[in-house]
Design a protein that fits this description.
Length: about 110
C-alpha cells in the first residue's frame, strides 16, 4: 500500500511530504564549495550508475543509494566515466558520500 502524504513536522510548515523527514524548505542543502558542476548528461549517467549497482552503496554495502560518486575525485584526475562512478548514499542516511567527502577534505588539510 502506498505511503500517504503528511505535513512537514517543522513548526508552522504546511508543505506535504512523502518518504522524507522534512520538506525541501526545511532540509539542509549541501552546497558544493568545491565548485563542481554537473557535466552534460549527468542525470542519465547517474541513473545508469544506480541501475548498474542495483542501488547498493559501494561504501557501506546497504541498499538505498541515491546518487553517483566519483571514486577518484575529479580534482585528483578522476573522470566522469562509468568506470570511475559508483552508487552511494548522499541525500538519505547514512550519508556515506558526505562522510567520504569530509574525510577527503581532512586528509587534504593535514598535508
Amino acid at each position: 500500500m502506498p505511503k500517504a502524504s503528511r505535513r512537514c513536522p517543522a513548526k508552522g510548515c504546511k508543505n506535504l511530504i512523502k518518504h522524507t523527514k522534512y520538506c525541501e524548505d526545511h532540509t539542509e542543502s549541501w552546497a558544493t564549495p568545491s565548485g563542481w558542476q554537473r557535466p552534460p548528461g549527468w542525470e542519465k549517467l547517474r541513473q545508469d550508475v544506480l541501475e548498474r549497482d542495483d542501488w547498493i552503496c559501494y561504501l557501506c554495502g546497504r541498499p538505498g543509494a541515491d546518487t553517483a560518486d566519483h571514486v577518484t575525485p575529479v580534482s585528483q584526475g578522476g573522470t566522469h566515466t562509468m568506470g570511475n562512478l559508483a552508487a552511494v548514499h548522499d541525500r538519505t542516511p547514512p550519508h556515506c558520500h558526505r562522510t567520504k567527502t569530509n574525510q577527503d577534505k581532512a586528509i587534504r588539510v593535514r598535508r
